[in-house]
Amino acid sequence: MVMSPWLRYLRWMFATLLATVALCGAFNVVIDPLGIFGTPRISGLNATKPYLDHHRDLARWQAARRLCPTAGIFGNSRAEIGFDPEHPGFAAHDLVAYNHAIPGTPISIALRQLHWLDDAGCRPKLLIVGVDFFDFLGAPPARVPPPAIPPAPRIDGSVLAETVFSVTGLRDSLNTIAIQHASHPASLSPRGFNPLLNYIPEVAQSGHYALFRQRALENLKNWTRKAPRIHPDDGSQSVEYAGLNAFLHDAATMGTTVHVVIYPYHAQIRLMMERAGLGRLFAEWKASVLAAAEHTRTGNVAIKVWDFSGVSAETTEPIPAPGDRQTHLTYYWEAGHFKKALGDRILDRILLDRPGFGQLVTDASVDEWLIEDRRFVTDLASRPSGLIQEVDSLFPGASHQQSTSISQRRDRNQS
Q: Which of 21, 80, 114, 222 is most buried, judged by most C-beta within 10 A?
């Protein structure tokens, strides 16, 4: 039987389509932008992975599963950007660390990741978990009973369709190749660390002041959307406290040492909190974080709480003037996100016992420390400075004295 030209054309087109899809799929697997297939990293081709905002749970889980780390870093974007899992302090304790932190996620995500590791036989010996006051602010009540922990993400048909056989997957692969020789790519290290190198040209173009100012305005907008409380009015447990308690309890049950880190907010944020009437609430929150740690500590398992948010030379690093595009700060990108250099100081203190920055908070020291910490902030607020002027400018219509008076009244109402 002689095949018609039209039928031959259709068969050729169909075969060409299949071959193209197969080649694109193979190309995407070889480049592996998300690092989910474990394809070898080849310098100049796919060694540097782009920072992508999709399939983040899967990408981090696949990398962590293959590494099977003995130490873990958990938290939100502050931890992802600030804590380098290749800090020498981990190796000094014969530990291999992975940064599991995902921006914008609650501690319930960290709890999932911890259980996934345990189920895979990768129970960590040490954990560093960052806690963020602003995640607790507003205090929505927790679900009772708590939701079940879902199974670890896996590579299924839908994932293959989206990452291998799609335009998005091809675009991610081409982007991966493109950033191999970029000076400051938005990338994620093999151990989950985001160095935020793409902010370097942003600072050179706009200056640190613009980043601080923009983030400060966003923070105020977000704070005012939340009720000024850290516990539900009905006396129940909030979502974030339930997650923290569960995380600490399960880690202690696993026999894992836990270091709870209160992030090193820049003094701009501390002063803004005072102006907004959140200073006393912040102190109460710190005490409640310690109480959660004390409540879940069992046997000889160590759960330590570290406060790096106090007023210090590091957290009062001067903000460059508007229009200054030459100055690159040592410790901060903007007031809420600290650089690796400051994260290294924190890990030095925790892992290598190097004094000089931060405060270990204990039952014996917490009351005295919280009083001292508030005094440092109020003293800073009482001294005229460029930082004070900048903070006051964020509260239009309120002078320095008026703002302080408002803060004091709110503190009395909360006490």
A: 80
